[in-house]
Amino acid sequence: MFKRVPGTRDILPEEASSWQHIEAIARKIFSTYNYQEIRPPILEKANLFTRSLGTSTEIVQKQMFLTSTTAQQDKENADLYALRPEATASVVRAYLENNLDKTAGFSKFYYLGAMFRAERPQKGRLRQFHHVGAEAIGSWDYRLDAEMISLLDNLLKAFAIKDYKIKLNSLGCPKDKNTLSDSLRRQLKGKDAQLCPDCQRKLTTNVMRILDCKKEACGKLTRQLELGQQHLCSDCLGHFSKLQEDLTSLGINFVVEPFLVRGLDYYTRTVFEVSHAELGAQDALGAGGRYDNLVSDLGGPKLGAIGFALGIERLLLATGPAGKSEAKEKLVYIISLGEKAQKEALKLLQNLRKAGICADTDYENKSLKGAMRRASDLGATHVIIIGDNELEKNVVTIKDMSSGEQKELKIGTAPTFLQGSAT
Ligand code: HAM
Hints:
Blueprint: H1 13-32, E1 36-37, E2 43-45, H2 46-53, H3 58-63, E3 65-67, H4 72-76, E4 81-83, H5 88-97, H6 100-103, E5 107-116, E6 128-137, H7 142-158, E7 164-170, H8 174-188, H9 197-205, H10 216-223, H11 234-249, E8 255-256, E9 268-276, E10 284-290, H12 294-297, E11 305-311, H13 312-318, E12 332-336, H14 339-354, E13 359-361, H15 368-378, E14 382-386, H16 388-393, E15 395-400, E16 406-410, H17 414-420
Parallel strand pairs: 1-5, 7-8, 12-13, 12-14
Antiparallel strand pairs: 2-4, 3-4, 5-6, 6-11, 7-9, 9-10, 10-11, 14-15, 15-16
Helix pairs in contact: 1-7, 7-11
The chain binds histidyl-adenosine monophosphate.
């Protein structure tokens, strides 16, 4: 028997209702902030991510699912494709490729969808996982950062997630990031031997990534480093202070965390992460930040931008029962006894569905008792029985499954009656 690929999951119908619940809440909240849905493809050219996320990042170095096609045309173009590991780069590509910088200007997008990273699977860490994310492109204004974090906070509240922590930092502009990197290199000088081989390499390639290392020895060393806001120029410091003022005035709880540098190279200025203690080792529910150079790095004009993404699987691990889907809607189950009754049932099923009522029937030729049990297992709110007796009188028997009450109705009036009845 075939098995699914490790690190992927089958979301079966019972669980899918929780996903629909999360997605419906997300769409509602996004629309109140006037964000519009964008659906870029899952397959992109691999170098879009190499260029956007940075060659020395974990994702680009180790985690991309790369595919080369056997199609001759693609081979000739030497295109290597990747299953998207994240969607920010795709959204920016789509924004530019579709000339939205020229036609729409400042734009606010949201997306829901699968992302792929070749990681070692564990609780909360999958190879195919799902993002609910937002990106706003075309503004440098700190008020947009505040809107983005307020949107994130409102989503988490609407998902009924408790005890989350919003960590905030500013990396500053590219010049400030260099100052920060220089300071880190200075402080780590002569301590190379205490770092893991990966981090020793990062000392020259991308020193900020050392702060993300999960290895005990590296963590011990980096925790002693002096990090603050000294690397920020006056403009970036102003942006960061005003953002904090706005968040405070909106009543959003956050903590400034100087060690938060994020694992992707495109970030500048504001970065943030949401953690949840109950998630264990993979405690990040979501994260985001500004990427003020990405639009121009991908060939577009100089435009400020910011976004975030939440991992749906981790949201579901963190939500209590309140976050799960609501009670079932009305479901009418038709039991027909005999071939003639089945023909009536077919028409009635159609009429109920046309009237917008969820209706189903038995396709396994169960006995009356078996079909009643099935209706109850499905959570049917009403059962309609059509047998010889009913056919003779041109009626159906309707049973209300919660009260147990039973009555006969003219067959044609059943949809109207059920539309009016409570579940
Ligand atoms: P990220 O931090 O790489 O950011 O991913 C965001 C969230 O996706 C994480 O906090 C986590 O909840 C979830 N996640 C990441 N990897 C996995 C995994 N292997 N298994 C399960 N969940 C995972 C980004 O992707 C950025 N594009 C966010 C962003 C948008 N920044 C600006 N705009």
